[in-house]
Amino acid sequence: MDMLRVTFLGTGSIADMTRRCASTAVTLPNGDVIVVDTGAGQEAMFGLRTLGIDPCRVRAIVLTHQHLDHAGGLPFMVTGIRFMSLAPGAPRGRLEICAPAAAVNGLRVSCDTMYPGIFNPWCLGDRATWHACDPQHYLWGLDLLEDGTAALATDLAPAGAAEARPGAIATIVTMAVAHGSPPLPAQAVRLDVAMPDGTMRRIVFSGDTGPNLDLGKVGPEPDLMVHEASSVEALGHDTDATVTIGHVTAATAGRVATRARARRLALHHLGSSWSGNPEAARTEAAMHFAGEIHVPNDLESVEI
Ligand SMILES: [Zn+2]
Prior knowledge:
By secondary structure, the protein is of the alpha/beta class.
């Protein structure tokens, strides 16, 4: 297929879980899939199946934080992958599960509570690996290697190299962000993807975060920045309250994309009070960001 596709399985937030979920799938040129956040329930798995994306090709699941709208779908996803991969001829590759270090134990227990033994060796445990991302000291990284394995990337360039790392089809990089009231471990995510022509594409996911003009440090000059936009100033939302609980407005998302020198911006994590008015968000972000802006609906995708 030789292209990189970002599919918005869900574009909502905890305020809008009955209409949208919070999950994105990135399909790599070789067909492997990286899922960033899983939504709250079965929606992400439904979305993958609806769009003809094989869940058994999910190579990595990266969780930005443990809130329900982002991680509640994890038990559905890992259990679904386990049983769908039992079908004759189904892919049975390795699965890397990446989450903030302080959230790993609870998330693993959640999965094991919903399906006891899911991570035993005879079940998914022989090919799933949990990774405790520890980005507190700047960046944490994992290389997904051409041979189907993965290796910690302990020698990341601080500013983010302009080329893919040797032997890696993709590199997952995380950086701590401030989110939640009370605060909880949360991270932004950068994906550096090796393209067949030898170039590299970069996608940065803000995760849920308060205003963070330093996101360019995790991934300068991304081809696509996927940024949360939980409220819109022009719609009269309480922007102080938005920031207090660790979110941002569409205007701030535009400012961050400009600071990071992003080529394109996608707004997601739409709040319930304006999810029916995405043009308001686009207009507001466009006052601060001159590049192309997407405000996708669930199940829409963009190619990079
Ligand atoms: Zn959220």
